[in-house]
UniProtKB/TrEMBL annotation:
Keywords: Membrane, Transmembrane, Transmembrane helix. It comes from the Eukaryota. This is Alkaline phytoceramidase. The keyword Kinase does not apply. Residues 1-33 are annotated as: Disordered. PANTHER family: ALKALINE PHYTOCERAMIDASE (APHC) (PTHR34368:SF2), OS01G0962200 PROTEIN (PTHR34368). The keyword Transmembrane helix applies. The chain crosses the membrane at residues 77-97, 117-140, 152-174, 186-201, 208-230, 236-254, 263-280, 292-315.
Amino acid sequence: MVTNTAQQRKSRPPLHFGSRSRANDASDCEAQPGEHLAARMHLAADLPPHRGRGGAGAGPIALASALLRRENHRRRALAGGAVLASTLLLVATPRLRHSPALHLFADMRNLLGVPNTLNVLTAYPLLLAGVPGLILCLCGSGCFGVSLRWEALGWFLFYAGNVAAAFGSAYYHLKPDDDRLIWDRLPMMISSSSLLSILVIERVDERVGLSCLISLLSLILVSSACERVLDDMRLWVILNFVPCIAIPAMLFLFPPKYTHSRFWFLATGFYLLARFEGLADRKVYSVNRYFISGHSLEHLCFAMVTLILTVMLSFRNIKIARDS
């Protein structure tokens, strides 16, 4: 009886506290190769090894969790860098005053008694493209398979901005002036800011994306006040063109959470084309022999962006599960 107890004690593996010898590491590698390999992977990644209750399977789980935390920190750092760069750009840019020439568009034809006819009519495709998406958003996030609640809010604001832009832009172009300008700009700025925030929520982090959405919506109101009260358009210009840089960069830097991500690239192409056509209003109008102006084409391209993203939402599925 005593002999059997002594043999059992000899057969038990010794307990180790603190540092371990190479011989013990070698024996552990033979007994539990999965745990030892996971610990070495932790050390290679400059992360502290973790011994969980699950034995050999706890190491890879801890490694994945630590790498996920590191990736989230990197994403938040990039988002903070983008905010800092925008702030520095605002400070470094000289004051931009409002010009009366802003209301002088290339195509000011009066057809069938409608002033600025094509600029007015081309605003309504935004309504046709935005209403179906807005209805599906009101039916619930399950219609589009959106997995995060703040992402659903972003899509609602995006489609609501498009619908409001159709009426606001048409109202402005019937009689372009300073008083009506806000009804043309405000809905489109809400739409583009929501689109950028949606991409941040999807590919970076939900909390970061929500903060981005709230910040951008607040800055939109501030930019409108600065333009009317201080006669300064700097913030408005930055808010309009930051998505032109941030959206393509995020598409290349961060992996997609959903399938059918190629639609994002197609929609981004039309978005950038719309911005270019708006800037080259008169040049585009003269190139196509005064058939349609760049500003009218800008409206149509924005409608294409909405249509493409609606198709994407209708077919996509979750590709990478991520908890925010």
